[in-house]
Amino acid sequence: xxxxxxxxxxxxxxxxxxxxxxxxxxxxxxxxxxxxxxxxxxxxxxxxxxxxxxxxxxxxxxxxxxxxxxxxxxxxxxxxxxxx
Length: 84
Known about the structure:
This protein is of the alpha+beta class. It contains two helices and four strands.
């Protein structure tokens, strides 16, 4: 199934927004705001979850089947890396 994307911000734009948060305190609201109006399959709800893998990583993605996952690494409450 091909992803339907109709938002005005691109995935790369979301990544760029998130990278601007590196060095700042981890705040789920800031993560959600960084997604702006990004859509996948006509959905815009952002889900953030702790991966609980012992590495301080969180997953952020649009709440849709096979949503593109972005990994946010946090150390001592500070965002240190963003990757997709």
